[in-house]
Input
Amino acid sequence: MKITIVTVTYNSEKTIKDTLESVLRQDYDDYELLIVDGASTDNTIGVVKEYEPQFNGKLRWISEPDNGLYDAMNKGIFYAQGEIVGLLNSDDFYTSDDILSTVAARFDKKPQIEAVYGDVHYVKQEDTSVLVRYYSSRLFRRGWMRCGFMPAHPSFYCRKGAYEAYKLPRTTVKGFGREADCAYYDTTYMIAADFEAMLRMIYLGHLKMSYIHKDFVTMRTGGTSSSGAASHYQINSDHLRALKKHGVRSNIFFLSLRYVYKCFELLFGRIWQIFH
Output
């Protein structure tokens, strides 16, 4: 069962090595890694070229201007050759060496499922040994999406066929020497296109999923969705827009409930640091 890992990059030379090395350490061989770079102006592609021989043909990459993060993700998913597709950000890395084998084993054990998901944790950008927040998807339920909850996106591995079944109306994407009409993420959302996509697939489409009690990805803080009050305001705006678009009843009070949950996650992070 081939798994495609899509990694979107832009000026990621300081962190992409950790990402690439964590993929190389995986104990599962049937995978491909697609690097979709937005025409970086630093040495990101130089680093990718340096590591490329170690992947023995399992790495493909492009570097060209795009319309942002979700446009690049659309390219990667469309050109994925694997039956299963997952996303690994260029400033993140796998928490352990058995993530892909664990994902493959769950799909093998439960062939009826369309997606799996697990947990992730956030660390300080300058010191990845310092836990900031542990994001557990264990309690997630479909109905919680009315409050803005969703499975940890970097832990979400989905069948390519499911992405195709729930894709958006035609949008042109270009990459890897080809052009096609396809979109899985709505690029008109500034930050929360991942929420809109999951709302479409999970809430409306009743996607068949299985939770894996495992920490999939170590994420550095400071990304698009974790960079201050302005980003949280935009996230809530995007969430309300997506919920309204799909006829899912909600309001700002419901969305604010997840911040209470986040406080407990932050508290857990502080306690973990004290005792470790």
Remarks:
- Residues 3-275 form a domain with the Spore Coat Polysaccharide Biosynthesis Protein SpsA; Chain A fold (CATH 3.90.550.10).
- The chain has one domain: 3-275.
- The mean pLDDT is 89.
- The radius of gyration is 18 Å.
